[in-house]
Design a protein that fits this description.
Largest sheet: 8 strands, antiparallel
Distance between the termini: 10 Å
Helix content: 25-40%
Radius of gyration: 25 Å
Structural class: alpha/beta
Shape: globular
Number of helices: 19
Number of domains: 3
Strand order of the largest sheet: 3-2-4-1-10-9-11-14
Length: 609
């Protein structure tokens, strides 16, 4: 969740580090700090609150440092405070470290260190790293001590360290927490997320678990903890800075909602063969034969990605004919799942670094099961640890609340259903129809976005509503969950998502005039059932915003308010109905005056369990 940035080069380290922290603000944090090596001495500055507060503290202190590390912290051990902010130092204040993750054995290490005379100034597990490093440096070089320190740590970490004893050296390592090395012209960068490096580097190296990297005036070397050099591939970074800027929109979330026609088209580009009613997924070519033999699919994911997986479950079962289950990744490995030789495990994650999803994949691989990843970030841990995968190509998604990544994931799941379906019993004619509708969807999405002014008025009308109920059936049931999640995430309004048919089994007791219902009622195979459910809600005094299909005069006459969307295949309807749900949550949050892109207590990439 926290953000790490490191700089080693020829320009002002402070200037770049602050900019890097600003680019990582979307990850969620409560404090920030920076450590600079200046004329052989460490200068550490920390603050509670936004990066702008840290920037104010550094005003007038630019200095000449060309080496430094910085961090945005999201509290795990110890409340948000200046003493708990990173970077942390040792007793001598000659070593500084920043850290993402959790050190599981920090209590026993702390007890040992206190017996050795170390004095701790914070409540964090991270400070232990600095003191262990100090102790190891009594008998070793900075690099050797760093390697020995890592061997003593249990848990998950991305660590970057600097020391006055080696002022022209920066050390870093990772274990179950992302860390990337950026390579520029005569300068090097470290970050927990490539978005911090966008615009400054064109080549990156993704560190793997158990690796450390040494940066010095000669360049960089990647090693194992046993001091064995590793040959690493330098990957070209395709994102540019313009894609990570707001482009005239008041918030990243609104920009990303409006980018969806393009991001959806990008997810499809080069992957559809309309005349054959087929999909071409190059990332799966190496496992194509194994995919023909699978008889069960398990999708593991969290949050919004879990909801896209639920839509995928309907797609894969109906069109590929493969029994599919969707598991919350945070629970998957704790219930001893039964995995057969012909089971396929699909991990869905925007960042590709979601700790729970990554742990689920490792559990599946431990049991010899075939795994694939659906991720947005090239080179991310899930993309590298799965047997194969498909990238979403949605571009950087900065707002914490996911929007375009969700619809891009649905695009990939539709392609995968087509791909697996045509391997089995899906007919040419139906395959051609799905491919044709997928290609039409970006222009349908543009038409949905034209409803934004109407949705804004509805949000103004219902902004003071204290509770929302989201309802849908079949393909749009997952969207009921997603719509409820969105309004909880950014507008902090209690909301529940339910299958419409479940209302009679308990939740209908909540219905009265104080409840606002938002229902997905497209003209599909469960239209009559949805209409019946809507009547039950209206009869109990609740108001209903119904999201339906263009030309549905019956729906318009009965619902309190309606939004009518272009007609498409039932399997693709949640892609269109997701957009008004996103816009409604956005405009409600605007009306309530909340921080849209950085909602409280949330982080974009959840990299700890």
């Amino acid at each position: 969740m926290c953000g790490i940035v490191g700089y080693f080069g020829k320009r002002s380290a402070q200037e770049f580090l602050l900019e890097g922290l600003r680019r990582l603000e979307y990850r969620g944090y409560d404090s920030a700090g920076i450590a600079l090596v200046e004329k052989g001495k460490l200068r550490v500055t920390r603050s509670v609150g936004k990066v702008s507060v840290l920037e104010d503290r550094l005003s007038g202190k630019v200095g000449t440092s060309m080496i430094g590390i910085a961090h945005t912290r999201w509290a795990t051990h110890g409340k948000p405070s200046e003493k708990n902010a990173h970077p942390h130092t040792d007793c001598t204040k000659r070593v500084a470290v920043v850290h993402n993750g959790i050190i599981e054995n920090y209590r026993e290490l702390k007890e040992t260190l206190e017996q050795q005379g170390h004095v701790f100034r914070s409540e964090t597990d991270t400070e232990i790293i600095a003191h262990v490093l100090e102790e190891e440096m009594k008998t070793n070089t900075f690099e050797g001590a760093f390697a020995q320190t890592l061997k003593r740590l249990r848990g998950a970490y991305a660590i970057v360290a600097v020391s006055e004893s080696s002022p022209n050296v920066m050390l870093a390592a990772r274990l179950s927490s992302p860390l990337v090395l950026g390579i520029g012209e005569g300068e090097m960068f470290l970050a927990s997320d490539v978005s911090a490096l966008v615009g400054d580097v064109k080549r990156v190296v993704y560190l793997d678990d158990g690796e450390m990297v040494v940066l010095d005036v000669e360049g960089y070397v990647v090693k194992t903890l046993a001091n064995k050099r590793q040959k690493k591939e330098e990957v070209t970074l395709e994102w540019d800075r313009s894609k990570a800027e707001r482009g005239g929109f008041p918030h990243f979330m609104l920009k990303e909602i409006f980018e969806q026609p393009k991001s959806f088209a990008d997810a499809l580009r080069g992957r559809l063969i309309p005349e054959e009613g087929h999909a071409r997924l190059g990332g799966l070519k190496a496992i194509e034969k194994r995919l023909r033999t699978i008889d069960r699919i398990i999708i593991v994911s969290c949050g919004t990605s879990y909801h896209s997986g639920l839509v995928g479950e309907y797609m894969l079962e109906e069109y590929a004919g493969i029994p599919t289950e969707v598991e919350m990744a945070s629970e998957f490995r704790y219930r001893k799942p039964l995995l057969g030789k012909k089971t396929l495990v699909i991990a869905i994650s925007q960042s590709g670094e979601t700790a729970d999803t990554l742990a689920a994949i490792r559990e599946a691989k431990e049991k010899g099961v075939l795994t694939i990843g659906i991720v947005n970030v090239v080179g991310s841990s899930i993309s590298r640890e799965t047997d194969a995968g498909v990238y979403c190509h949605a571009g950087p998604e900065i707002s914490v609340a996911s929007t375009k990544a969700f619809t891009s994931q649905l695009a990939i799941l539709a392609l995968l259903s087509l791909y697996l379906g045509r391997q089995r019993g899906l007919s040419l004619v139906l395959g051609q129809r799905i491919a044709k509708e997928l290609l039409l969807l970006p222009q349908y999405m543009e038409r949905v976005l034209e409803h934004a002014p109407i949705i804004k008025k509805l949000a103004k009308k219902y902004a003071k509503q204290s509770h929302y109920l989201y309802l849908g059936r079949k393909y749009n049931y997952p969207n009921a969950l997603e719509g409820a999640l969105k309004i909880k995430e950014i507008a902090y309004v209690p909301a529940q998502g339910y299958p419409t048919g479940e209302m009679k089994h308990g939740p209908i007791a909540l219905i009265d005039s104080s409840v606002m219902a938002i229902m997905m009622v497209p003209r599909d195979s469960v239209y009559e059932k949805n209409m019946s459910g809507m009547q039950e809600i209206l009869a109990r005094g609740s108001r209903v915003i119904a999201i339906g299909t263009e030309g549905d005069t019956e729906l318009s006459q009965q619902a309190t308010d309606t939004l009518l969307l272009p007609k498409t295949l039932e399997m693709l309807s949640p892609i269109l109905s997701a957009i008004p749900l996103q816009l409604f949550a956005y405009y409600i949050a605007v009306e309530r005056g909340y921080d849209i892109d950085q909602p409280r207590n949330l982080a974009k990439s959840v990299t700890v369990e």
